[in-house]
Amino acid sequence: MQLLEIKEKAILIRINKTYQSSINKEVLYDYTRGRCKLNPERAKNARYAIAIYKGIILELYEINDWHKAGTTESSRKPNDKPELNSTKSLIGRFEFKGKLASEEIKNKFVNKSVRHYFVKGNSNPINYEICRKRN
């Protein structure tokens, strides 16, 4: 698998707990964009959000803006993974609104490995290291 060196300002979002191969594009977007515990000041530096499953890029989104979790329209249902979707679990979490990145940039990213951006044993699904490196 080809390792990808990311040069764009991006936030890497692992969706290992919620991803299923049968989910559609809308659900993939909602599970990528939402309900993350993160520092919104650091996250707002990212231009792209990258959906990652087991170290491989599934999709790439261009971020428009960030909101408190649960305040934007979503295809998620409260009974889908209740530990991630309850009102209590949304406190201190954020979600972005955005759109699919252009085909040109997606082709550079999708199906490439970014395992090297995550330290073994780190369970945090968010990595915005790339945001800090490039101002």
Describe the structure.
There is one protein chain. With 135 residues, the chain is α+β, with helices and mostly antiparallel strands. Helices cover 21% and strands 27% of the residues. It contains five helices and six strands, in the order E-H-E-H-E-E-H-E-H-E-H. A six-stranded mixed sheet has the order 2-5-4-3-1-6. The longest helix is centred in the first third of the chain and has 9 residues. The protein is globular and about 40 Å long. The mean pLDDT is 85.
Task: State the gist of this model.
With 135 residues, the chain is α+β, with helices and mostly antiparallel strands. The chain is built from five helices and six strands.
**N-to-C SSE series?**
EHEHEEHEHEH
Classify the secondary structure makeup into a structural class: alpha+beta
Could you give the order of strands across the largest sheet? 2-5-4-3-1-6
Could you report the average pLDDT, rounded to the nearest whole number? Answer: 85
Largest sheet: 6 strands, mixed
The radius of gyration is 14 Å
Q: How many discrete structural domains?
A: 1
- Name the helicity range: 10-25%
Beta content comes to: 25-35%
Q: Uncertain segments of ≥5 residues (pLDDT<50)?
A: none
Shape: globular
Beta strand count: 6
The end-to-end span amounts to: 29 Å
Number of helices: 5
